[in-house]
Amino acid sequence: MTTNSGAIRIIASRPVAQNSEWCKRIEMFNSEAVWRALPIPLLEIIPVTGEAEKRQLQTQALGLDDYQKILFVSQNAVEHFFTCLEDYWPQLPKQLCFIGVGEKTKQAILQQLDRWGCAGDQIVLGGVDAMNSEALLAMPELQQVDAEKILICRGVGGRPMLGEILVARGARIEYCELYQRALPKQAVAVLAEADLNSTTDICPVFSGETLTNLVAVLAKHSNPRASEKPPFRLPAQWRALIVVVPGERVAQHAKAVGFKRIAVAKNATEPAMLKAIQQAVEEYLSTAAH
Predict the structure, then answer these.
(1) Domain edges within the chain
(2) Considering the domain 47-181 in this protein, what is its CATH number?
(3) Nearest to 65 by CA among 95, 109, 88
(4) Residue 149 phi, psi (nearest 5)
(5) In angstroms, rounded to a whole number, what is the distance separating the alpha carbons of residues 167 and 145?
(6) What is the mean pLDDT of the chain?
(7) Given a cut of 80, is residue 126 above it in pLDDT?
(8) What residue ranges in the chain does DSSP mark as E strands?
(9) Strand partners, 12
(10) Domain covering 8-43+185-289 assigned CATH 3.90.1010.10 in the classification
(11) Which H or E element spans position 273?
(12) What are the residue ranges of helices labelled H in 38-102?
């Protein structure tokens, strides 16, 4: 499989803190130099700053041992939650039950517990057995949760389905909202400077929110007077851009907003996304050869 070195660019759209490593993974996976990574972060993680939110975080941190289970929806949630705990707990209570959506989130929990010197005293579940909300909710440990008090650590408004279904199973849910997700202010300028090509460039996104931000940036790039509030309209000239998405739910979102070339990864793990990127590149090269 050969082409002009670097002719295909893979847009690295993750938050800045994760994007450098993601760029490296993209290029290491590209043994034949068929593509290169193009960093354009489309998501920014901003800690909550309101006084009401801070007071709620304090209450939840101090009541840590009141929860039967503590769920984390992302690595960012893990980082921000344990940073908050440092102000209130010199040592964590024993036998807490932490659950992470996805293997990287589970590993982030374990790393934090190692840093606290108490990994052996805690229960950590999830990971490869819970790569998305649906898989997490299928775990045996989350079937009989009647009257259990469960804390869901997330960004503002994230993954509402988790709480809704657990409430339907009888759990008492609290949300620990640790950060907001936003579109980086410089994203439109960075995209314009990159001179994106809707035919040869490929954009993997790890969430529906990143996909929405992609549409917003493309709309603003095409028309500086475009609305800055959703719903955003995908300009016709960008409908041919190849997007790689983490599962059928985000694929349906991509189809609904107008993308015509959609590659679907098994889940949002980097290995699954890289495999889908490779398949998308191969399909593009095969089509271009004819």
Answers:
(1) 8-43+185-289, 47-181
(2) 3.40.50.10090
(3) 95
(4) -95, 115
(5) 9
(6) 92
(7) yes
(8) 8-12, 35-39, 44-47, 69-72, 97-100, 123-126, 149-155, 172-182, 202-204, 242-245, 261-264
(9) 39
(10) no
(11) helix 270-289
(12) 51-62, 75-85
